Amino acid sequence: MSFAFHARRVRNRGLPYKYRYTALRCAVGRHMPLGFTATWQYITGVAGSVRSDEPALLRALDVLEASRAGQLREMAAFGARRRAEKQRGYGVRRDEQRYRFGPRWYGADAHEAMYQTVQSLWAEHTALPFPEMPNHDKTDALIADSYTAGCIWSYLRSGGQATGDNRAVLRRCVASLHRRPFGGIEDMETFRYFLGLTKMADLVLHDALPLIRRGSVDDAAAVREVFLSATDDKPYLRDTEPDAGNPEWINGFLACGYSHELWVAELRGRIVAFATLSIDQLGHLFVMSGLQGHGIGTDLIVHAKRARPEGLRLHTFQRNTGACRFYERHGFTVSGFDDEPGEPDVTYSWQPRPSAG
C-alpha cells in the first residue's frame, strides 16, 4: 500500500484508533529518511503521545507529510537537472549521491530532526565497546573511529555546527567510511558498529556542511535570492550587475562555453551561496547574509581551487574590505589595481604552492 493510502487511514475517524495508529507506523515504513526507528522517534517526539492522543497522532502525520513533500519536490528538481546535465556530459558526484540518497531529513525542521537523531544515536554508540578485530585491520579502524567520533562530538558540543578543520576532516572521514566499510557477513559486530558510526557521520555532514554542486538556470530563483541577500547592505554591488542571478544572466554566462561554470552551495535542501568560474577567474562568490562566517564561502573557495589547480584570479571592489580580507585569508594576493573613474577595484591572484622537491 502507498504512503497516501496509509495517511488517509490515519485521518479516518471511522476506523478504530488502534488501526489509525498502525497506519501511522505503516506510513513511516513508506517514508523513513532517518531509518524507521529514528523517524518514528522524531515525529512522535515532536507530536506527543500518539498511542492515545488523536491530535498528537495527526500532528505526527503532518510532520511526516511535510518531510515527504519536501523530498518529492527536491527529487523532482534533481531529476530535471540531471536530465539537462546528461545532455552536457556531466555525471553525478559521489558526494551528491550520498546527499540525495543517504540519511537526511527534508523540510524546514531538517536541522532539529538530524541533530536530535545524532544525539540519540551517539548515546547508543558510546555505550558500545570497540569490536574485536584482526590486527591488520584494527589500526585503520581505530584511526577512522577516532577522527569520525571527534567530528561528531564536536558537532554535538557546538549545538550542530562543524567548524574549522573539522569540516575537511569530516568530509574525508565520510568518504573513507563509504569507500572501505569495516566488518561484513563474517564479522557482524564490527559491521554494525561502523554502520552506526557512518550513519551519524552522514547526518552530521548533511546537516552542518553544504553540498557543493553544479548550478543551472533551474536554480535561478534561489541564486537571485542569495545575490539580493548578500548585497542588501552593499548597493554598489547591485548597481554593477543588477541582473545577477536572473535566468537570462545564468543562461548567458553558461552559454559562453564549458569553461564557464556556476556552482552552488546547498544546505539542508536550500541554496545558500553560489560562485561562478571561467577559464582562470573566480567571477562571483556570494553567501546569504545570515550564513556568512559559517565556512560556506570557504567551501566554495576550496572547490574553486580544486577545479582550477593552475591558479585563479578575481576582481573585487577596493571598498569591499570584508571580501578583501576573506580572499587574503585564503591565500590570494593583490596583483593589480584599477583606479579608473567610477568604483575602483583590486585584482587578486592565487597560485598553488610549488611541490616540495
How would you characterize this protein structure?
Residues 348-357 have a biased composition (Polar residues). By secondary structure, the chain is an alpha+beta fold. The protein folds into 3 domains: 3-91; 110-208; 211-350, Gcn5-related N-acetyltransferase (GNAT) (Aminopeptidase), CATH 3.40.630. Helices cover 55% and strands 12% of the residues. It has helices at residues 3-11, 17-30, 36-47, 54-87, 94-101, 110-125, 135-157, 165-179, 188-208, 220-230, 235-240, 247-254, 296-307, 321-329, and strands at 211-214, 261-267, 270-277, 282-287, 312-317, 333-338, 345-350. It has a 4-stranded antiparallel beta sheet with strand order 1-2-3-4, with helices on both faces. A 3-stranded antiparallel beta sheet has the order 5-7-6, with helices on one face. A hairpin with a 6-residue loop joins strand 6 (333-338) and strand 7. Helix 1 (3-11) packs antiparallel against helix 2 (17-30) and helix 2 runs parallel beside helix 4 (54-87). The chain is globular, with a radius of gyration of 23 Å. The mean pLDDT is 93.
